[in-house]
Amino acid sequence: MATPPSTRDRLGAIRTALNAARESWGESGETMLETGELFVPGEPVRIFVRKRGRNYDLDDRGRATDLAGKPTGWLPVAQRVVTEEGFNVNRAGVVFVPAFEGRDLALMALRLADTSRAVFAEVLELTDETQFYRRRNRKRNIRTRQRYVCPSRPVPGGGFGMTRYWSRNACGRAAAG
Question: Which pTM value belongs to this model?
Fold first, then answer.
């Protein structure tokens, strides 16, 4: 079983790949960096780096939230995680940070990759909790939200068949369930 690379090894690999990409860039350029981390087996954490003049944009292309899914309440959870590291997340789920020339972009890319992986883990945990509560409450929700129709009662606007969302139907009989 192979041991995962150390942070120093990962930083060195990112720095080498970034320097190689910068040599081919002029005023603008872009590259995708391998960070040595995995979201899940077979799905590496990659950081996209784009240069425009003196400005750089680093992001994960929204991969963390795409893989974890976007259950109800995912954005506040993701914002909490990225705020701790001083990064950003948008409503599309992209974890990103703008930077300027002169910053240690390799270290920033490494930190962004770790933060993206943390967002993935937190949102995935939220997904698991949401599915658990949905499964737990499914039977109760089905029983209380069924539609019962009574063919003997007139419906406003003409016709018969009043629809109710109660545990007893409009005829007064106990609902099946």
Answer: 0.71
